[in-house]
Each structure stands twice: as C-alpha cells, then as structure tokens.
Specification:
The complex is a heterotrimer of chains A (612), B (292) and C (242). Chain A is built from 22 helices and twelve strands. Chain A is of the alpha/beta class and 612 residues long. The radius of gyration of chain B is 18 Å and the shape is globular. Classes of the chains: A alpha/beta (612), B mainly alpha (292), C alpha/beta (242).
Chain lengths: 612, 292, 242
C-alpha cells in the first residue's frame, strides 16, 4: 500500500467511527435526518463516478434520485420484497441514465450537461401527472426488524459501505482504468483497446444505478412519498456543489460535505438562527454555494484536494529536482554520426519474410487538408522499418490511420485482415500496439496502472463481474498483473512500478510507454519518435533496445524517427514522407543518399537560387 | 392555432434574449453561463422591491423599475465576470460551468433568504395594453418581447459585422490566443460579453415575469434551461442559430403546453435536445468546432 | 551612452505547469537584423518565443526591449510596442475573411489613413491576397496562409517580428518561398526578425544564429560563422557532409 493512502484511511476511519456511534447521541427524529443525508450522500457518490471519473457533468442527479425512489415505491407497494425493489430501482435508474448520457457518445463537452438539464426539467414535472397512479399514497412496507429508526439507520450505513466497496473495486478493474483513460487521454484510449463509447455509457449506468439505490433507500425510509421537493432542479445543483466541495474522487470528502449540507441544518433544529443571517435551513445551502465558488476558484480539487495536499506534506516527500540535461556539442555529435555511418550494413536487400502490414492507396483527409495521399507501404515480419520525414510530413498520421484515430480511405491489411473495417478499440486485439509522439499514457496513474491499462483488450471479464469481485474477474486481474510486472522487469522498471508516471524523468516515461505497449502482447509495435527528448547516449541505447525487442521478443517494429543516424544503424528498411506523399523507399543508406530526401530535410543549396 | 404560435413566439423571444446572452458569453469565453438567468432575476427582485417598498423614500415607477432591472443585470454581470470568471481563465471549461452553476445557486438562495419563497408580484413595466393577433390576445409585455428580440438580433448583427470592436469580438471567438497576438485586449471582450449578457438577462426577467405572473427563485433559471435547449439545437456558437432555436422552443412549449400539458412539452423539448446532440451535435447552424 | 539592442533576453527560464523547459536562455536581436534560433523538436524554441511574448509565465531571467524590462508583458501590449509574433501553424482566424484578418493586424493602429495605406501595401506585396480578399482564411492553402500571416503581422508596422517555425507543414519549395519572403521584408522595411526553425535553410538569411538544445543555448554564430554552423548542423542531422 502506498504511504499517502494512510492519511486518507485515517480521515475515513474517523468519519466512519463518527457515523457508527452517532445514534447513541441522537434522538430518533435526528437519526432519521442523518439517514436522509446518507441517502443524498449515496447519490452524490454516484454523481462523482461521472464527474470525477469521466469529467462529465450531470445536472439531473436529483431526477435520477427520484426515478430510483418512485421505481422502488412502485415495486414495493406491489408486494416485491425490498432487496429486489432496491435492485429494480438501481437497474431502472441505470437505464434512464444511459439514455440521458447518449449524447456523450458524440461530443465531449458542455452540451452533454444541457441534455441532463433538459431531462431534469422534464422529469421533475412527471409526478404532477400521476395523481391517479396507485402507489402514490400507498406505503412501502418495512420488514419488522427495520421498523426502528436506529436499525434503518444502520441499513443506510451498510448501503453506503456497499457503494464504497463497489467504487473501490472499480479502481482495480478494467472499467475503472477505462474511465480514467477516457477522462485523461480520450483521443488515445482506443489504442489501448478501450472502447470510449462503451466506457462512457458504462459510467452513466454505474452512476445511475448508485443514484437509484439512494432513491430506493429513501423510499423505504419514507415509506410513502407525495412530495417532489427532493427531486427538483435546486437539489441537482446542490448535489453538484456537494461533489465539488467534497472533492471529486474523494468519497470521504463527499460524504462529509453531504452530511454537512443535509444533516447539519436539521440537527441544529428548524428554529436555529445563524445570527444576523437567518434560519439555518436556508443559510447552510447558501453557504455551501459560496464555499463551492471559493473551492472552484481557489482549489479545484475541493476538500479531497486539501487532504491530498496534506498527504504530500505529511509523507515528507520532497519535490524531486528535475535533472538538468547535459547539452552536447554539435561538433561532437557530428563526429559520432560519422562514426555510426561506418558500421557495416550486412543486409542490402529486403528481408524475404512474409508481409505483416500492407498499406495500399491510404489517404487521410481532415476537411480540406490532405494529410496523407495515396500511400503504399509494407512491413515484413521481423523487420525494423523506419519512417522518416520533415515535420508535418504525415508520419504520425499514418500511425493514426493504422490505429483507427484518423479518417482513412484505402486498405491497410494486417495479417490478411483489413484494419479499416474494425473499430479503433479492436485493433490492439489483433496484435498492433503503439506509442505516441507526446506520450499517450495517463500521467496521474502509477506505472503499473498504465501497463494494466494498455492490456485492456486482455481483460475479458464483464464489468459487473469485476465490480462485484466475482472469481473469474479476480483470476484475470492477477494474470494481467503478472504480465505487467514481467514487462516492467524486461525494461528495468520494476522498482518504479508504484511511482506516479508524471513524476518520472521524461526519458523514463517514454520507456514505460514502450513497456506498456509490449505488455499488451502485440506482433507489430509502432513507435512514434521514441528518441525525442533523449540524449545521444540514451538514443544509442534505444537502438539496442529496438533490436532486443525484435530478437528476444520476436516483435516487428515500425519506428518514426527524426534521429537519422539511429535509423541508419537499426533499420532494415526505410520510407521517407514529405507533405503526405511517399518520396523514397529502400535501405536507410539508399534513402538518405537520395537528393530529394536530403532536400526535404535540409532544403536545397541556397536561397539565391530561388527566383523571388 | 396560429394565435398560439404567436404567443409562443413571444415567450420564445424571452428565451432568445437569454440565449443570445449565453451564446455571446460562450463563444468568446468558452464558458457556458448557467448563472445569467438568476443574474437577471436578482436584479429584478431588487428593482421590484424598490418599486413596492421604496429605498430611502424613493419609489420608482414600474417602468423605471424595469429599466433598473436591465441596468442592474448589466452591473451584476460585470461583477460576476470581475470577481469569479476572470480567475478561471485558462482553466478547463468544466470549471467555468461549475462556477456559473454556483453563482446561480448562490443568487437563488440569496433571493430565497431575502424575499422568501412566496411568489413575488411582478407587474408589467410596459403597461397593460392588449392587441388581438390571429385569434389570440398579446399583452404588452409579450409585444415588447417580440420587438426587443428583433431589435437585439439586428443590433448585434450590425455591431459584429460593422464595428471595430465587433471584429475584435469575432476574432476572440475564433481564437483568443491569436487575437491577443494581434493586439486585441481580450479581457475587454470578456467584460463586454458579460455586461451585455447581464443587460439582456435583466430585460428578459423584467418582461417575462409579468407574463408568467410572478417572480420566484429559480424561475428564471428554469426559463434559461429552455433557452439553453434552443441554443444547443440552433448551435452554441451561432447567434442566429441560437435565436431561431429558442424561438422554436418557445413555440413548441406554448403550443404543446396549452394543447396537451406542460409535462409533455418538456418531454418534447428533452427529446429534441437529445436528437440534436445525437444527429448533429454542433447544432443546426453551429460550426464543427462547437463540439470541442 | 550604451546603445541597447532591440531585444535582449537574459537567462530566461520558463516552462509549462510543473515542467521546466528553458534553463537560462540568453540572446539578442539588433535593429534590422535577422536572427535564427535553430534546434530540434523539444529543444525549447517555441517555448522561448512564447515566454518572450508573454504567453508563458517566466520563472527566471528577463526580457528587455530597447533596454526596458518587458518581462511578462502580455502579447496584446507588446503589439503596441512594435513586437508582433507569427505563431506556429500561422494562427489563421479561419472564419474571418482575408481582408478581416489583415484589418485585425492593424487593430492597434488608430489612424484610418495609415490602416488603408498598410492594406494597400499588403495587397501589393502579396497579390494573391488581393485576389482572395473576401474568402474565408480557412480556405487558403498552406503557402497562402503563410503569406497572409506575414502580411497581417506587418500591418502594424512592427519593429520586431517573431516567427515560429514558418516551415512547418510546407513543402521544400514553399519553405524556400516563405524564407525568401521574410528576407525580402527585412530588406525592404528594415524590420528585425527573430526566426525560430528546424530547417537549416533558414540560416541562409540569418545575420546571426543560435543553436538551442534542451532549453539552453549551446552555440552562437555571426556573419561568416553562420555558414560553418549550417554545415555542422547538416552533418549532425544526416551524417552527411554539406
């Protein structure tokens, strides 16, 4: 367990203790007030799944609360036993939430919040039409052992603990990792096998289910509901406030904020007056909104962020100083390049191994801009193929075409299958893995978590199974962890497995990214400017690594590189692009000797030749 | 039925004033302002209170109170920009959205504390005249809304296409960093957006409240939601689209609301928003960049 | 009395968020000079320009214009002082027309007559812009956008142009044209240019040059030495001699 979690456990433990012993100090009506606050707390935890995990905002969670409540009432007043009614409420609310969340499939942004607002407006009016409906006015029978307010209170606490356990499981399973990937590196996540659409809908489903559970609990507590006040727009806004003030991704903070907002005014009594301001029931929510403003403006992470900052200070972790890079002498670098060129190249013909990747007439257009035009190229098994060209030539665009992250025409056949017919998230399952020019991993996660993320396509257990810690899921997770540790050992990173990726030196981050790609078990590895930002010594070592990956792991590599001597030293074959068009193909020695290639990198002789 | 459409257009005009405010703020600052409804409402509350109870012995007439609401809205908009929004420049758009949400909540709860939960009487600032149009009766506030929406649309179009500052606003909308590199003081554009947005919200509040009969906390935010729905359908970065979208929402709400019931019309609006976001997420007149 | 260089950057340190990119960059640009800053990806070239122009927070060192400290001055105010940047990717306002883009270049110029004259001048220097003056800037080709970016930057008659990777995404022929235009503009109007580039060809028009690597200046050359530097960079890049 990492050290920082200790502080969070202490705070959580203190809160838990407080909650457990509270009934001893409270009257029955007061206990009931706290129970209701816990219901809201559960809904807030559900909202946090969306906000904290995916960065989407829902302003409809009070409506979801209502959906859960009325579904449970509808079931419970018709003789369904309460655990089933609870389950039914969770499922129904999950389904509704998924529908409301459908726009998130097409856009990432603020319009999704508006869809939820529109739903909230609609949903809060629906009960007005139900005066004649049967269950309004009827009661949801509580079993005998729950009739006492104190016993019901502990049921509520139990539900809270259940939700917390499920959320903890979320972090350790592929749905949780996918949520983080979609939040932090959405455009890239498909390259790891994460299906962004499915993940977003999953987030809405889980969020809705948890909110529905809160609603069902409330229904059972009230036993009959005829008032829609808890489910109106104002309450949706207050729920957002609770999550933000409590701190996204901080369950302890959120529960504390929920209790402060919803339990405190009632506990202080309805005639309690905050001196000079007015009755507590009105002042506290207003204060909460003021705190929210302050929180967002000053400390975007809320109470949870404050806790995290305390953790950092308490664990005595000093800021690791960024190692100052050593500049190299351009003349020395030139001498080294000359020396490298003298290494004999035994292979002057192309390897006669079978084709692994064949691209024919591949074009990529972004609106009016043609990024790649009619590209034909081929990668054969066990080759290391270099892809070079000036900035903006289209090299990364080709990788994006293979990964499914760019609008592509033509054919790209991988082991016979046309990749362009597959969704982006399905391509890693075929055996293609890649890295990104600007490091496509999640900096906020640990190294090991990132390696696990890259193996998403191997995590074949269903989401619910993972959340409920069923056997198959646990076994698969163990296997994935074993593979992750193996990959890290291969690259000498095992001692950094629990370090936050973003804290590592840049060169190490890039190696970790390669390790992640390798861990997913590919046949073809696409490396995008792996040498960018590395010193010449590190780049030299990288070349050795390329060969090791080919010789020891049996991988085929395609590498985008600016470091031409590295390409000359390690690649069997080389393609050169310029402005989206292929201008040369052959061995590195042949390609780099062609005048057109030299011109592409270094320009022609001099400017005087250009007629102005 | 045509008369109902015209009444719906009048309500839609109120929505379009709010929608213009939202789009103005969104396209220049990329922040979706959920606060602008309550900004107008808070200002109107103050103005109406001054009208009924007087401040320091001065009791403005209803018309003057209406104008005070408009000006107060502008002032409050400027205050929100200065105190809250300016500190959030450069932060992700979600932070801005949450901040405006907090401002809306704060203002609404303040209204609750200051003026109570009972509906606040909202007399019309433009008198009680009536006009019969196509089978329905249009009251003076409704007529004023129609006229105002048209005037605002025209005025804004002229401003954006014919003036230097309008050009600067469009540049900021297109790319704030490049605008700065060309010497545009983008802070002034932000201030302008919030100030004008506040004025429009104050006007919308002053004319919509009499139509709805009274003023309550959150009522203007609820109206803002319809305006937002219209803006999303029309296109969040297209002023023309937002106006047309809100007018459409107003008409649908009015016609369906009176012929069936308000719940169904809210449902129709929700489905329309959902469908737009699934089929053409940037809105019918929005540019593709609006979905970023 | 000492004559100050037009622009002086002293020990500049800057970066993004927690990541430091510049570790004490120092350089100068004199009146009417073309100065090139060369470096590969990640060397800190664009970061340097953004820090000078006030888009990035400066954590150490200073920027002096005519000897006066302008460190951290936001870009919109630097335009008033005669410093204009042509950003990476050319910074087109895609939804606005060519004329509107040019007009915005003169946003800070109050005198209507001067603006009209500058517009005429731009259309004379770049006839293709006159031809397409009512078209949206987003519809222009890469080379035409480069012309618009340069023309727009010149509208306010600046004393110093900061040009960020003009060659990005352009074919070799267009790159040469772009550099030739910069040289022509410098000769005709005497505007100083700080040119940040990967393409070694830029050294053909530079009076002085620096090489940036990992956020530090590692080499400096003036006059004839610039040719030597060009040759060495070519060698280091491709392993071939010039």
């Amino acid at each position: 367990m990492r050290r920082p979690e200790a502080t969070r456990l202490v705070a959580g433990g203190a809160l838990l203790l407080l909650v457990l012993v509270a009934p001893a100090f409270l009257s029955l009506p007061q206990t009931s007030i706290v129970t209701t606050a816990l219901c809201i707390g559960i809904v807030a935890l559900g909202l946090d799944v969306l906000v904290g995990a995916t960065g989407q905002l829902s302003i409809a969670h009070a409506a979801f609360y209502g959906v859960g409540c009325f579904t449970a009432l509808g079931l419970g007043t018709h003789g369904v036993p309460w655990p089933l009614a609870f389950a039914g409420a969770a499922v129904m609310t999950a389904a509704v939430a998924v529908v409301v969340g459908l726009p998130s499939l097409r856009i990432r942004g603020l319009q999704v919040a508006i869809a939820s607002l529109a739903f909230q407006l609609f949903a809060q009016q629906v009960p007005n039409k139900w005066d004649g409906i049967k269950f309004v006015g009827e009661t949801f029978e509580r079993p005998g052992w729950l009739e006492d307010e104190t016993s019901f209170y502990y049921l509520a606490v139990g539900c809270v603990l259940l939700v917390l356990a499920v959320l903890a499981r979320l972090r350790r399973t592929w749905p949780g990792r996918s949520l983080v990937a979609v939040r932090d590196v959405e455009a890239r996540a498909a390259a790891f096998g994460v299906s962004t659409g499915r993940t977003k809908l999953l987030a809405y489903g889980i969020s809705g289910a948890i909110a529905g559970l809160g609603g069902a609990l409330f229904a059972l507590q009230q036993t009959s509901v005829s008032d829609t006040q808890p489910f109106i727009l104002r309450e949706s806004l207050i729920l957002v406030a609770i999550v933000v003030v409590g701190g996204a991704r901080s369950p302890v903070g959120i529960l504390a904020a929920a209790l402060l907002t919803k339990a405190l005014p009632g506990l202080l009594g309805t005639d309690f007056d905050v001196p000079g301001l007015g009755p507590a029931s009105q002042v506290v929510p207003a204060m909460l909104a003021g705190l929210l403003l302050l929180a967002v403006v000053m400390q975007p992470q809320g109470i949870g962020g404050v806790l995290r900052d305390l953790e950092r200070a308490a664990s005595g972790r000093r800021e690791r100083p960024v190692p100052r890079p050593q500049p190299t002498d351009a003349v020395v670098a030139a001498a080294r390049a000359r020396a490298l060129r003298d290494v004999p190249r035994p292979l002057v013909q192309r390897l006669p191994t079978p084709s692994l990747l064949v691209a024919r007439a591949v074009s990529v257009r972004y609106g009016g801009v043609i990024a790649l035009q009619d590209l034909d190229l081929e990668v054969r098994r066990s080759e290391i193929v270099g892809l070079i060209g000036a900035n903006g030539a289209g090299k990364s665009t080709f990788f994006n075409a293979v990964s499914g992250l760019a609008p592509t025409t033509g054919t790209i056949r991988y082991r016979g299958t046309d990749l362009l017919g597959l969704p982006a998230s399905g391509r890693s399952a075929r055996g293609v893995a890649r890295t990104f020019q600007d490091m496509g991993l999640v900096r906020g996660d640990t190294v090991r978590e990132n390696v696990l993320l890259a193996q998403t396509w191997l995590a074949s257990y269903p989401a619910v199974g993972g959340l409920l810690a069923l056997g198959g899921a646990l076994g698969t997770e163990r296997e994935l962890r074993r593979r992750a540790d193996q990959a890290l050992e291969l690259f000498g990173l095992q001692h950094l497995a629990d370090e936050r990726l973003g804290d590592l030196p840049y060169g190490t981050m890039r190696i970790a990214e390669i390790a992640s790609a390798v861990a997913s078990g590919p046949d073809l590895l696409l490396l995008d400017e792996a040498s960018a930002g590395l010193t010449p010594e590190e780049a030299h070592a990288l070349g050795d690594r390329f060969r090791a990956l080919r010789d020891e792991l049996g991988l085929t590599l395609m590498v985008i590189e600016h470091h031409v001597p590295l390409v000359a030293r390690t690649c069997d074959w080389c393609y050169c692009l310029e402005s989206g068009v292929l201008i040369a193909a052959g061995t590195p020695a042949e390609v780099t000797a062609q005048p057109r290639v030299v011109e592409s990198f270094l320009g022609r002789g001099s400017l005087e030749e250009v007629a102005t | 039925m045509l008369g109902e459409v015209v009444v719906g257009l009048a309500i839609g005009s109120a929505y379009s004033l709010l929608a213009v405010a939202v789009v103005l703020i969104y396209s220049s600052t990329r922040v979706l302002s959920l606060a602008i409804g309550e900004v107008g409402a808070f200002s109107l509350y103050g103005a109406l209170w001054a009208h009924t109870h007087g401040i320091a012995g001065w009791r403005p007439s209803v018309l003057v109170a209406g104008l005070l609401a408009v000006l107060g809205g502008g002032a409050l908009g400027l205050l929100v920009e200065r105190v809250v929004m300016r500190r959030l420049v450069g932060r992700p758009a979600l932070d801005g959205l949450v901040a405006t949400l907090a401002v809306a909540l704060f203002l609404a709860l303040l209204e609750l504390a200051m003026y109570g939960i009972d509906p606040f009487a909202a007399p019309s600032p433009v008198g009680h005249g009536n006009v019969d149009v196509l089978g329905s009766t249009l009251t003076a506030p409704q007529l004023a809304l129609l006229a105002l929406a048209g005037g605002v649309a025209l005025g804004l179009w002229l401003f954006l296409t014919r003036t230097r500052f309008g050009l600067a606003t469009r540049a900021t909308t297109s790319d704030p960093t490049v605008a700065r590199l060309l010497g545009v003081k983008v802070n002034r554009v932000y201030v302008f957006a919030w100030g004008v947005g506040g004025l429009l919200a104050g006007a919308a509040a002053a004319l919509l409240a009499p139509v709805q009969g009274s003023l309550t906390p959150f009522s203007l935010t609820t109206a803002l939601l319809s305006a937002l729905a219209g803006a999303v359908i029309g296109g969040l970065d297209s002023l023309g689209g937002a106006i047309l979208g809100s007018l459409a929402v107003g008409v649908v709400t009015g016609v369906v609301g009176s012929r069936v019931d308000p719940t169904t019309s809210a449902g129709v609006v929700f489905l329309a928003v959902l469908a737009t976001l699934l089929v053409r997420p940037q809105g019918f007149f929005g540019s593709a960049r609006a979905t970023a | 009395m000492t004559v100050h260089p037009l622009l002086e950057v002293r020990d500049l340190c800057s970066g993004y968020g927690g990541l430091q990119v510049l570790f004490g960059v120092s350089l100068t640009v004199g009146e009417g000079e073309v100065v090139a800053v060369m470096g590969s990806n990640g060397a800190g070239k664009t970061t340097t320009l953004r820090a000078v122009t006030g888009l990035l927070r400066v954590t150490g060192g200073s920027v002096l214009l005519d000897g006066r400290d302008v460190t951290g001055t936001p870009p919109e105010r630097l335009v008033d002082r005669g410093v204009v940047m042509v950003p990476e990717g050319r910074g087109m306002l895609r939804d606005l027309t060519v004329s509107e883009n040019l007009a915005l270049g003169a946003y800070t110029v109050r005198d209507r007559a001067a603006v009209a004259e500058a517009l005429d001048q731009a259309f004379t220097t770049f006839p293709i812009l006159h031809e397409r003056r009512d078209q949206k800037a987003g519809t222009l080709s890469g080379g035409q956008q480069q012309m618009l970016a340069l023309g727009r930057a010149l509208m306010a008659s600046p004393r110093l142009l900061l040009v960020d990777e003009a060659s990005l995404g352009l074919s070799p022929v267009m790159t040469e044209r772009a550099f030739a235009l910069v040289a022509q503009v410098n000769r005709a109007s005497g505007v100083a240019v700080l040119l940040v580039e990967q393409n070694v060809l830029a050294l053909d028009l530079a009076h002085r040059a620096y090489v940036l690597e990992k956020g530090q200046v590692v080499a400096e050359a003036a006059g004839a030495e610039v040719r030597t530097m060009q040759g060495e960079l070519r060698a280091a890049y491709l392993g071939v001699t010039a």
